[in-house]
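Most newcomers find our protein records easier to grasp once they have seen one. Sequence and backbone structure share a record, each on its own labelled line. To make this concrete, we reproduce a full record directly below:
***
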Amino acid sequence: MACSPANKKIVTDEKALFIDRDGTLVVEPPVDYQLDSFEKLEFCPKVFRNLSFIRSKLDYEFVMVTNQDGLGTDSFPEDTFWPVHNLVLKTLEGGVSHSMIS
């Protein structure tokens, strides 16, 4: 599949709200800034209420983005990242929208 040329405009009626995961949806662990265990998982206060409010008032798809510095290294192996990240996705899908992706 070929990529669209840079000068070709893609027109769509869909709107998207890009939401950073750490510090916006979940509390970024102050110990090492790595959400690599279930014990460190804490959703930001009122995040579900606020996302539901946005969903009810605006016609936006939610897109979760996250930049995980050091992911895949000895100090932050992927096998500690994915279980917690998948729980975050599953929780958000159940409480907010089935279109939340990363």
Observations:
- Confidence is low (pLDDT under 50) at residues 97-102.
- Residues 38 and 87 are 9 Å apart (CA to CA).
